[in-house]
Design goal:
The protein is an alpha+beta fold and 207 residues long. It is 15% helix and 37% strand. The chain has one domain: Jelly Rolls, CATH 2.60.120. The strands form two sheets. Strands 3-4-5-10-7-8 form a six-stranded antiparallel β-sheet, with no helix packed on it.
Length: 207
């Protein structure tokens, strides 16, 4: 096999590695949900941690009064704001496959950020725009991560409001609601193209 074919195969196989897909509209059918968090309890979270239906929500670097949620149309919110972020994991320790939730900013921020981890190792991160109360939906599909961290930047200049400054200690007031999980990965259009490239690579390997 010559060097050019080897390089071609390398880049095909590298591009075929499953990546996390980002969604800004609800992509999980209600009938396919395996977990759903409605924040329906009537008491405040204990030690800034709330668990419902196999999902754990935790406020990290929060204030003592953080993590309030309300029984009438309840949601998760760092009451009064804090200087940390919200962490979402599964109680069984498994990876997420598809997950999505609604967001809003109690401080009126226009930008929020996310960072995904797998076994403590950073996977990917990015930003999202925030609209009116719970008008925003953010979701992730493709698997390969077991921890989601989210926050907003309601007192940060737009030029520095990104996931690279996630831990800069500036105020955060991001609210969450309606966390949904499903177990079947949703294929993206580019996934079909990558699958075709993988088939080509296997064909070339046999030659």
């Amino acid at each position: 096999m010559n060097i050019f074919k080897s390089l071609f195969l390398f880049f095909i196989l590298l591009s075929s590695i499953q990546a996390v897909n980002i969604h800004t509209t609800d992509f999980i059918d209600n009938s396919q949900r395996t977990h759903f968090v409605a924040f329906g309890s009537s008491s405040s979270a204990v030690n800034l941690v709330y668990i419902e239906n196999g999902v754990r929500i935790q406020q990290v670097n929060g204030q003592s009064e953080d993590g309030s949620y309300f029984p009438n149309g309840g949601y998760w919110y760092p009451n009064g704001g804090d200087y940390g972020y919200t962490k979402i994991t599964r109680t069984d320790g498994l990876d997420f496959v598809n997950v999505g939730f609604q967001l809003y900013s109690g401080g009126g921020a226009s930008t929020g950020a996310y960072r995904l981890y797998n076994d403590g190792v950073f996977v990917t991160g990015g930003t999202f725009s925030i609209g009116s109360m719970f008008a925003l939906y953010v979701g992730f599909s493709g698997g390969g991560f077991d921890e989601i961290r989210v926050r907003d930047f309601y007192s940060t200049a737009p030029s520095t409001a990104n996931h690279l400054n996630f831990y800069n200690g500036t105020p955060n007031a991001l609210g969450l609601d309606s966390i949904e999980l499903s177990g079947t990965s949703v294929p993206e259009p580019h996934s079909l193209f990558l699958s075709l490239l993988s088939i080509i690579a296997l064909f070339l390997l046999r030659k």
